[in-house]
Amino acid sequence: MGGQAKGKKKGKPKRKDINPNLDPRFVGVSPQERMKLRAHEKAKKKSAEKYSVLQLLEKTEECMDSFDFEMARLFCQRALDVESSNLQALDMQGHICSELGDTEKAKEISLMQLSPDVGHSKYMYLGQINTGQESVDFYTKGIQVLLSALEKQAQTTQAEAAAAAPADEDAELPTAKDVCVAYCSVAEVYLTDLCMEEGAGDKCKELIERALQYHHDNPEALQLMASYLFSTERNQEGKEYLLKSVGLWLPAQEESAASSNTDEDMQNEIPPYESRVTTAKLLLESEEFEVAVDVLEGLLEEDDEVVQVWYLSGWVCYLQLEKAKELQEREGREVTEEETEEWKALQEVARSYLTNAKKLYIKLRCDDQPMSEHVEQLLGDLGGELEGEEEDPFLDEDYEPCSEEEEDVAEAPMEH
């Protein structure tokens, strides 16, 4: 403890001044600190008597699921007070600290020497909160732990697994999909932070190929391969991987949106929101406008408070309009009445989406100047904002900004 006399004493301790009945932990501690320690011990004892570690971790998980990370930290700490070496509790505490922005504490927890070769998730957290080579090192260690755990699982017979189940029912059981996701995480670093490093492209491709070996139809791995191929100007190959990826989860998104289905298995088929925003960008880049519209409509149905999704929705309509006009000019014919109506509809829809993007941008106080300028440019080309339109419910004066995670998506820089 920071207040102990060890750092203050210049000579040897005077044992005759120490109360023989005093707890050694309280030696040299101020009365105020001593009171805090005793209160902590009392709370720890009360928790141990009233709740089991399992119950405390269940409460921790409930709070995490509802994004109440402050309360989750309290329950998790109580669990560690009772059983300080509980690996699940340590992993959960590392995740909670990273969610609360306490990266130093997350590092401290995850780098504890306690069972460094057990539990891969702490290394995944550290990989997420770091950048560059340091991120790669943490992810690589996590992959080593994962592969070791998978090997041990493969060597365990069903009978042995059944016999051990009661003791290990809360243990972290890795899957091939976990390995796939971990390899993708390293590949993304080489596609972004370390893209200028010598041989970064080859390393990125190799890592994605390894990911697909463990989970050949993983949508995010396929999409990452598409991103890599686009970055190397192999656009046709990239488009094939991208469409294969989207085809694996888009039907589930459409079914979920149509029926408000919250079935867990169906939801697990759908990549995270941020990943699907990236999907929409890649679809625009590859001129797969109709599929992009389907993806963006699903995103708006799921969450209509993300500026970038409104912006992309307006942009794809604008691009569809431009493509239709180019086709007509290339064919050297007169514009048909049907085309005129279709173009007018596309123009109005694009203006509507972009007008909402601009309003929400202001409400959320976003800070993405390139996106804001592009919205203004597109609106200028389309005839300006829509005036006198009934305001959307989420754009009223009582609107409260979305969560930090959603703001990160809204403020992610755009390429155009």
Automatic annotation (TrEMBL):
Ranges of Basic residues composition bias in the record: 1-15
Region (Disordered): 1-42, 381-416
Stretches with biased composition (Acidic residues): 384-410
Top-level taxon of the source organism: Eukaryota
Molecular-function annotations in GO: phosphatidylinositol binding
A cellular-component GO term for this protein: membrane
SUPFAM superfamilies, alphabetized: TPR-like (SSF48452)
UniProt-listed GO biological process terms: determination of ventral identity
PANTHER family listed in its UniProt record: AXIN INTERACTOR, DORSALIZATION-ASSOCIATED PROTEIN (PTHR28654:SF1)
Name of the protein: Assembly chaperone of rpl4
Organism: Champsocephalus gunnari (Mackerel icefish)
Organism placement in taxonomy: Eukaryota, Metazoa, Chordata, Craniata, Vertebrata
